[in-house]
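Page 47, continued from p. 46.
Same chain as before, 394 aa.
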Amino acid sequence: MKKSLYLLLLALTAFCAGSCIYDFNPDLKGQAGYLVVEGDILIGDYTNITVRRSQSLQDDEAAPIVSVSRAYVEGSDGTVYGNGGPWGIDTRNASPSQEYRLVLEIESRKYVSNWAPVMQTAAIDSVAWTISSDSETMTVDVSASGEGSRYYRWTVEQTWEYHAAFQASHYFVPANSVLKDVVVERDTVAMFENGENIYWCWNSETVPDLMMASTVESSENRIIRHPLFEMDRYEQRCMYLYSMLLTQEGISEEAWRYYEAMRKNSTDVGGLFSPEPSEMRGNIYNADDLSELVLGYISVVAPQKQRVFIDMTNFGRMPRDAFDTEPVYVEKDNWRRRYRDGWRVYALHTDQSPGTGRETEADYEFDWLPARCVDCLRQGGVKTRPDYWPNDHK
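Result:
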């Protein structure tokens, strides 16, 4: 789970321009490679921890995942949860009356978080959304109330269904390929069958924003329609059907201060009134070398979760508007060249129709389009429909 990695790295690299993330040290100027630990110990759920290396602003590649040889959650009563990798540690049956810490073994080094009690979380009352008056953006908000910490943090895992601009009815099969368990001898075209298509796809990611709120200044522990994040109607996730799994955590005051310092530093990008580097220290460290800089804050929480679906068909963009392209008739002799140039079969040419007495469908004439117009996979998604998805698209 990505959570606040983006903001962590942005905060780090802002300081690297003239100082390090903790104590000022000009010798660290421009360096990267610090350990970044993300995730929380979730009581009553699975605990998922991601470990990466920080990068400088000049590095365009994704932050590399760090291999963890051993990861587990330790309870104050001596119970150990998990003993393998950092993903999917089973803390569903962990007692809320104990204290816990995370233990990671990385490259013969032992990293631990501070012991912490379980923070209780108020209930999620509702998740709602509002479309702006100009119909260009949608804002998602949350309401919550009840017993629990007065410091809130939210994370969102989002999944959405989208489709290509045009729905192809056929696809190109090069000579010597296998089609229905038979090797074809010549270039041909076949029809999509049994839900096999390149029209419907799914994509997913976490919302990168650091989403927090506090009720310490209020007379009661109640959040009313607090805005979480915003979506633009022309985004891919607003095309068809959108789902979000909202996780609400009640965190400690110390964790709140840590994330607030990180947010301010990310906003100011190292400005005159940015937090001091010492304010960015988290609660995880190298047990054998306290001088090593480690980024991240591990909370111990009993989270609240809620999944919602949003029908985007009346809000999102019309996909064909994104392409100024019309289907092109392609002679059979040019099929292979068009395919290599990134084009794909779209459908039977409008002047042709089945039942004309031709021997095979491969003898029909076909229109083609650029792959980006008919192949949803070209837009970064996958063909695997989530098990919880409410429709039967394939």
